[in-house]
What we know:
Elements: H1 2-20, H2 22-57, E1 64-68, H3 77-81, H4 90-97, E2 101-116, E3 119-129, H5 133-136, E4 141-144, H6 149-153, E5 158-161, H7 163-170, E6 179-182, E7 185-193, E8 198-199, E9 202-203, E10 207-211, H8 212-219, E11 225-231, H9 237-251, E12 263-266, H10 267-310, H11 312-320, H12 325-358, H13 368-373
Parallel strand pairs: 3-10, 5-7
Antiparallel strand pairs: 1-11, 1-12, 2-3, 2-6, 2-11, 4-7, 5-10, 6-7, 8-9
Helix pairs in contact: 1-12, 2-10, 2-12, 4-9, 10-12
Amino acid sequence: MRFVTDVNEGLWISFRALRANKIRAVLTTLGIIIGVMTVILMITIILGLNKSVEKQFAFLGTNTVYVSRWNWFGDNWREMMKRREMKPEYAARVERESELAEAVSPFGQASASVNVGANRMTQVSIMGVTEQYLVTNAVKVEFGRFLSDQDISHNRDVAIIGSGLADKLFEKVNPIGQSVVIRSRKYRVIGVLEKMGKFFGQDMDNYALIPVGAFTRQFGRNRDMDIIVKAASAEQMEDLTWELKGIMRRIRRLTPLEPDDFGINSQSMIMNVYKQITAGIYTGGILIAGISLIVGGIGIMNIMLVSVTERTSEVGLRKALGARRWMVGWQFLVESAIICSVGGAIGVLLAFIGSKAMDKFIPTTMPFWVAVFG
């Protein structure tokens, strides 16, 4: 019972001391507020950017590899320019010979103008694919339907358009069943894809998907194409890569001593490079933010040292009346804990408000554990 009384007495003394020195307490708390807010905001920005980049790279497809003429991160571009083009018929052979592929789709890309009456958009990305593109890539049909095997086998003039294209060309009109003109050739719109947003500032919704046969008929069979191959699971990605290398070497008729004249690329390669580039920047940012928190802690330490010096006579009087050493220490510990707790709570609140405000310009994510960490 005496212990509880001593603890309560220390609490009341601490509160009275803080009330008597309001300005000093506020200024000391300010250091912790800034430190906690800075650390949390830095972490929320890092988490937000990582989540945004992962989401935007998802359009490449998960557990998916791209067999291409190019190595995405190769440094010998002059040699890669000499490689033979990839042909759309390679996809059928890969699908036939691969035992680990869940889905295979050729992928051709060109840029063209698209018209709907007086509405016109230039530099629209036109992609030639098959019905399996829906499996290999993270695209979803918002309304309408995707390409069917009949559309592919008959090279029908049909198109699935991105939501950005639908909004700008058709405005408030339902695009399903309407016609779009791609390079003077009419295509009937059969579906509209869900909105994907922007990728490094580029609008990812201004594109159209058409059957690969219609694509090669309009843009030429000699245009370079990729082959998108999806593995059944993440565990099979490495085995699939080696299997595809063997298949492609047979297709390209390479001798054992000849190097690969194709590249096998994946989403994970981009993410690894991104993480390598940003790891140092993020670590430096958190360290700099942490310094402000350390400075705030040093500020509290200095103020408490001044507080102890100012109240030497009070401490002496309390000890003379029977106060023990831990009771005096408890008094000053409570003062510093109150300053830290109030400063931390305000810092978390301001960081939450700041992250919501910044989310309009920079993607941020503030999970619960970040607030607790702060």
